[in-house]
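Researcher: Please predict.
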Amino acid sequence: MPANTPDGETPVVVGKVSGVFGIKGWVKVLSHTRPRDNLLDFDPWLIHGADGWRSCRVLDSGHSGGALTVKLDAAQTRDAAQVLVGKEIAVQRSQLPRLPAGQYYWFELVGLRVVTATGREFGRVTGLLETGANDVLEVEGSGNRMLIPFVPGAVVESVDRGAGCIQVNWDPEYQ
């Protein structure tokens, strides 16, 4: 998890600078948002550097060959843009839209324990996969890795973020 910002809030990573674009400081951006252009709805962005998180603003944006491109106030030249390549882009959690009950951001599920109603523990969520039909929890524990469909009601019986637990109706033999 990224280090806290100066105001003490833990930022949420929503993308990454993936390359430079042109000679005037534009960069290519890999967005973790769906749809990917939702990344442009956030202002300001936080860019992680050697000295921690720093705020920056998107001055302009576009697309090139399917890639999202942006001009940031933090880079006026190609050399300045090159320094940003590989850096994570984050926003404050307070900038995220509020979700309806029963919906979760993926980052909220990572790290939660996964158990059955009878108390059998499978491990912790280490990531999620987008499959098209439904999302899938990646769960690791006791040296095993399991993939469990995130299907509320049918497989996922409850999510209790306060208790750090997801209760599932799942048999380890399904793997």
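Model: The chain is about 5% helix and 45% strand.
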